[in-house]
Amino acid sequence: MSGRPIRLCFVCLGNICRSPTAEYIMRELVAQAGLDQSVTVDSAGTGDWHVGDPPDRRTVEAARRRGFRVDGSAAQFSTEHFARFDYVIAMDRSNRDALQELAPDAAARDKISLLLSWSDSGEADVPDPYFGGPSGFERVIDLCEQACASLLSSLVRQHHLSGTPGA
Ligand code: 4NP
Q: Is residue 57 a contact partner of residue 88, using CB atoms and an 8 Å limit?
């Protein structure tokens, strides 16, 4: 891979449930495809309540049951972040609207998409699991796995990426 990597940031509200789940699922897919040098992955929240916190325990446990790790510490997305990322991927329409408010110009707005717009799930939003039961966290994983795989395929096609699977 020549040139700089494509930089992704997944964004939800608190950055402790949905966007860290998407981040770590995508990290795994990128690694499996041998694209670590070509794609970087991060996440943030539009809110500031959990800044510095680790992912929600229920998120970590749901991921562990499905065989992957979720880690990191929560950060708040701010206007300056648009310069750091090529794709700013919102988990629901409310997150997307908040990002559009923060975007300083049209170029920044063009970086924003909805995660599920990359998949054929037929849905718009990854539902917020924070105030619900364990099944909500499973649903987040299902939706993120499907959409992240589609997103990565699109990036590979669009940016002519080639990796070394298993490297
Ligand atoms: P997330 O979930 O946006 O998927 O990280 C939430 C986390 C915290 C809160 C809401 C949603 N909260 O209200 O503190």
A: no
Domain covering 6-159 in this structure, CATH number: 3.40.50.2300
Name 8's bridge partners.
41, 87
Tell me the CA–centroid distance for residue 18 and ligand 1, in Å: 8
Distance 130 CA to ligand 1 centre (A): 5
Q: Domain spans of the chain?
A: 6-159
Q: Which CA distances in Å does 120 have to 5, 72, 137, 146, 151? A: 26, 29, 20, 9, 11
**For residue 1, what pLDDT is reported?**
46
Mean pLDDT of the chain: 96
Residue 2 pLDDT: 55
> Which residues are catalytic, by number?
12, 18, 128
**CA-CA-CA-CA torsion for 68, 73, 77, 82, nearest 10 degrees?**
-70
pLDDT tens digits along 7-55: 999 999 999 999 999 999 999 999 999 999 999 999 999 999 999 999 9
Q: Is there an atom of ligand 1 within 6 Å of 58 CB? A: no
Q: Is the CB of residue 12 below 6 angstroms from any atom belonging to ligand 1?
A: yes
